[in-house]
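Figure S4 source data
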Amino acid sequence: MKTKIKVWLFILAVGLLSQCKKEPLAKVTIPDDNFLNALIEQGVDSNGDGIITPFEAYKVTFLDVSGESISDLTGIEAFVNLDWLLCSNNQLTTLDVSNNYALDELDCSNNQLTTLDVSNNTALIKLEC
């Protein structure tokens, strides 16, 4: 009798657990494939799943995506501990690093920038644009 109860409890537990939905991992929205590929090539995607999570972005302090044909750095705002950003020789027209408070060096030279927002970057020591 105890065995039957254990079997039924096991079946019930499996049934209940199979109804649980896994929450998808949060991900950083990076619409520019060249930017995403550059991040993956540099090992930012530490678990190799092809997406950048907020935790993976949080760990990055130095980023060099120069010469990668990037036209949009949307997603850079998730890299909150970024000290250095090198993004020269791309096709950027706008760059907003106002949420990257730790940034102290930025090289965005040789782009087509018409808008650059560094309004909150009080730690910024070196700017090349």
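Figure S5 source data
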Amino acid sequence: MSSRNGRQLHLLAFGNVRAGGAWRLPGVRNGPANQLNTLVATAKAAEAAKFDAVFFADGLNFGPKATWAHKSTEDFEPLTATSYLAAVTERLGLVVTGSSTFQPPYHLARQLLSLDHLSSGRAGWNLVTSFAQAAAANFGERGFLPHDERYPAGRRDVTSSEVTVAFLGAGYRHRGSRGRNLQ
């Protein structure tokens, strides 16, 4: 919807959220997040409500020393989940968190490009650099980069990913200082 000054409000639904006490409210769907019907219902409801995209956060830090207590094995891996949703939605953007810390940029770029192709250009990437000790342990690492080194490393990974995407035949369009979109 445009306003008089040409600005628009874009809506993004959070795809993997659960409210602990929602079971008390009649009519609220608050089943396990790893049920296909719950995943599809969430995406279809967002699309029907004219949301621009659905966002699936991810954390690599499951384990005894996890940073967030709510992280569980119930959550679908976002690229797999959104690849399925690409087939059952038509216009809804599919945004996933992808950490560049523990996987090579080429591999991550290929996965995101596959989602982009499967969804006919509706993929989005929330780039993060992992910081949790539990995440490092899950990848057989002893630690992670210090804060001041993580973001330059993330920028290098984005550049490497852009090269991979260009090499594989897709283009991208630069969107200001904070974003790029695959085309």
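The chain has five helices and six strands. Confidence is low (pLDDT under 50) at residues 176-183.
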